[in-house]
């Protein structure tokens, strides 16, 4: 079934209630960076201790269209978001074999100002009942997860006069209760950040004139009240979820050929960590619903271009540097002091997933590394080149299956036990 979304009316869907964010079941990877948007799996995920010399078993692979968007997985379904010819395509796959269950598509003319990319960048967001996608030209779409029925669509860049940015729209939407919050970067009527009604797509609130970043917002709860922590082009904001009221904001970013692309990390619901390359650097701050205070800030310790670091037991593990300007180093730093503990130089760029004491690092050159990181060093357990060519899309780990893709192929491999 491949239906083209035309002029959609706003359809009111009967949606299950959400506590604050997406509903997560064991093994799910339903949004960017997994269950909690921090690159860490739930406790039930177990990685193998090693791989055969031929690499982890390939369960299936299939051709795909252009995209930097990784897949999202919920139960037996995986959502692929890519471009086929002149359409952005939302495609629901059977997670176990990659076969198509349903497809939706709509026209696109996108061509990136920098790099010439043509496909979407944002990882889909899956709730219990619906799929939310955000295309490279700012087309926000909601479909029913079960069968792909289109529920609503908003052309945010057109409606709110948003700047396209270097690479198109790239901040993955966040579900906050009955809202979808998006860093649109609109220039009309303070539409930098917009909350849309999850059931109807209607605009619920708009805030700030900040341009959009490539960093996805994250959910924070204070006294049972949902808040949105968001990095825009030039600032970090904490907003009240239901109303959009700005609780605090502080500068993070700089003008010129720079981007903010790593997601903010929330540690123990009382600290936040931000990182970016291009001389922007890293920040650790204490924060609450009405305040923030810098703990430390510096540029030379962990400046990540778009790889969001992993926090484990007071240590941050991340990749310092840029993909496009080598070298890039794998580093460990002490969270509270910013002290560099170790530095694996010339490691290469990639994305990190943590699962029960192990790290999976999918490098942009296609090599995937299984290892253990501690405050004293990194021990590689296995590695294998999973794909050829450049691999920039974020991987997904669900029920022992790792989903990786480049511009031509999506591959599912067994890395769990």
Structural summary, described in words:
- The protein is mainly β and 417 residues long.
- The protein has one domain: Methylamine Dehydrogenase, Chain H.
- It contains one helix and 33 strands.
- It has one helix at 156-159; strands at 2-4, 58-63, 72-74, 77-84, 87-94, 100-107, 125-126, 130-134, 139-144, 150-155, 174-176, 179-182, 193-197, 203-207, 218-222, 225-231, 235-240, 246-251, 265-267, 271-276, 281-288, 291-298, 310-312, 315-320, 329-334, 340-344, 350-355, 358-363, 367-374, 377-385, 396-398, 401-405, 409-414.
- Strands 1-6-5-4-3 form a five-stranded mixed beta sheet, with no helix packed on it. A four-stranded antiparallel beta sheet has the order 2-33-32-31, with no helix packed on it. Strands 7-8-9-10 form a four-stranded antiparallel beta sheet.
- The two termini are 35 Å apart.
- The model is unreliable at 1-18 (pLDDT under 50).
